[in-house]
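Exercise 7. Predict the structure of Glutamine-dependent NAD(+) synthetase from Rhipidura dahli.
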Amino acid sequence: MGRAVTVATCALNQWALDFEGNLERIFRSIDIAKSKGARYRLGPELEICGYGCSDHYYESDTLLHSFQVLEKLLESPATQDIICDVGMPVLHRNVRYNCRVIFLNKKILLIRPKISLANGGNYRELRWFTPWSKARHVEEYFLPRIIQEVTGQETVPFGDAVLATKDTCVGAEICEELWAPNSPHIEMGLDGVEIFTNSSGSHHVLRKAHARVDLVNSATAKNGGIYILANQKGCDGDRLYYDGCAMISMNGETVAQGSQFSLDDVEVLVATLDLEDVRSYRAEISSRNLAASKVNPYPRVKVNFALSCPDDVAVPTCMPIQWRHHSPEEEISLGPACWLWDYLRRSKQAGFLLPLSGGIDSSATACIVYSMCHQVCLAVKNGNADVLADARKIVNDETYVPEDPRELCKRVFTTCYMASENSSQDTCNRAKLLAEQIGSYHINLNIDAAVKAVVGIFSVVTGRTPRFSVYGGSSRESLALQNVQARIRMVLAYLFAQLTLWARGMPGGLLVLGSANVDESLRGYLTKYDCSSADINPIGGISKTDLKNFIQYCIENFQLTALRSIMSAPPTAELEPLVDGQVAQTDEADMGMTYAELSVYGKLRKIAKAGPYSMFCKLISMWKEICTPREVASKVKHFFRMYSVNRHKMTTLTPSYHAENYSPDDNRFDLRPFLYNTSWSWQFRCIDNQVNAL
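Solution. The predicted structure, encoded as tokens:
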């Protein structure tokens, strides 16, 4: 009867400009889809060139190599007898579009350009592409000669159209179009499209997955239909981690769920679904049918091919499933760990070095590396040959099989406690015990000689010797002496990263990990070019509150008992002299605000788009039980003074895993000046006037 259609979607770990690797992963996904009986294969957004090409999209080479990859796909026997839907940039009449190229049996059926471009937060698609603004309009696209020679076609349809197969109708959306208020699937569904496809390049943010799942399910809950979503996965060359979650939904319910975090480069979901379930679901929605009778029809590209088989009465179809969401602590354990693995294997380095202070932030970073080792061992145990091959290259041992996370940690992870005369024995012991429990190669060293040498140079030149405040020095002297310690730690971290393996008779170098959290970056509570300056930072987009919860998760799930004392200790930089052998300096006292307050300020500043006055107005209501308006005003002013004084530090912030929507990352997510009038005179006067009125 031709009712049961079998479709495939996938999550691919593509890499920007890795045309060779991207092609191989696309072929693998097609092979898997065909082996499971699929007749339609959907891939992620811009999968041929990789989503994160950025300004490389301007280059004609990127367009050329994308067409060369398309040529390989078209002429391959592997793509026969299955509709393949791939993503790539296309230049049409000298305008660059983000497109889906849909083909079958060496013939291009349709090139569908993206209509709604993502242009907020981390996305800059309008910089490189133009949205297709001609609704339900199709033009002729003249194919390059290398494609003409394979397809025998001179021109193909280009524009906003749908595919009419022998048994159903298929319409495409691309990523942002699902999130738009006027999503194309609404009108397409009213026009009789039964299968919607969405090719995404959607990145991970803590607590975001449910929003994507809800959007997909709601797309077909009101209108009926089958919705297939593909997504990029992994680190494709920058701060973002694309978190897979490929899925298939029908009539408002999920029928197939892909993993959000995994080390598999290729993941394919296949589902067989009954078209009659869509038709019967739609039949009783009278409001939908009334709207459908008046809809402006889409151009249809006729395809002499069916997604079902004629004799399919006995073919089993997929049933709805319950989506399982990760907790935020699980997301922190898995997302940054997978991102680190991609970065490590693709950078061809031999491991990581982390300055481990015995505090929450560096300990959380160490736990993420330990989680990465867990994921690698689990993937190898499950037969992932790619992960095994990468692990062997990293440790330079062709016979190595990672089975124990602690043993793998010993090979790829070096931790270093850099003591000074201001360090306590407690933090030293905590760092050492944690290193023992996760298995890292641990180094203890003392930086006092280097600090005295640097300060000595200054004293020789100027004839003056700076002193800490507790010894009678000014705040300027004390801060400068703290900064010297912090910066020497950065210099030593890079020295040991380059030469530790050499000293141990092993090849390769190490990537330096930073461990400044998102709240400290927002406040500017860090020394410019200290240990926050590193190659990459897996926790730079995560709040202190979430990191504390993650530490508790690691205690319970990894049995890292050393973390208990780390959790209970007050956060401290340990840059000022000890008092009676004990730490007198604490982070929150230094900052003049708590980490909980910082998270609130960060969300209001970035997510709620609040300046000083608006933030004050919101907080006098939020904090009315604990603060007077005058106290709120003082807190808001202090935050904005400190934020603006230290904003320049964000220009040199280590590339960090993006996990939080109030990240102050200056690279492309949070674009602000870095030279402010830090008096905020007009804004603060508005606050003062309101306080006086209250």
